[in-house]
Design goal:
The protein has 3 helices and 3 strands; from the N terminus they run E-E-E-H-H-H. The protein has about 110 residues and is mainly alpha-helical. It has 2 domains: about 1-30, no CATH class; about 35-110, no CATH class. Strands 1-2-3 form a 3-stranded antiparallel β-sheet, with no helix packed on it. A hairpin with a 6-residue loop joins strand 2 and strand 3 (about 25). Keywords: Metal-binding, Zinc. Homodimer. It comes from Pisum sativum.
């Protein structure tokens, strides 16, 4: 990226860090409705991208495989959607309340094997 007089602006992940205001490349920006509540919209810029991207690009589940998701906030729900997009039948089939178990990780393992 560069400023209006052609000086290169140092960037990392398309975001400038040596600026008085945040600078983002136009290709990494999305217009939102000005009436949208920013405290809700901000979830889309991080949680959804993180959960969806981690599932599709890192975990890469194969169709028919099991996926364990720990937590069903924005990241967890996006991970479930990423699994669906990757070919897994969508549907969260089991819920485990960690307060009901001494070792919830072992309980989850028995569901996914």
């Amino acid at each position: 990226m560069s400023n209006t007089v052609g000086q290169v602006i140092k960037c990392r992940a398309a975001i400038a860090w040596e600026a008085g205001k945040p600078l983002v490349h136009a290709g990494c920006a999305a217009k939102i409705n000005p009436d949208a509540p920013l405290d809700n919209v901000c979830i889309l810029s991080c949680g959804i991208c993180t959960g969806l991207g981690a599932t599709i690009n890192v975990a890469k589940p194969k169709p028919g495989s099991s996926v364990a998701i720990f937590g069903l906030g924005a990241v967890g729900l996006a991970a479930a959607e990423g699994a669906r997009i990757s070919g897994k039948n969508f549907g969260v089939t089991d819920f485990i309340n960690p307060k009901d178990h001494d070792k919830p990780v072992q309980e989850v393992s028995s569901l996914t094997i």
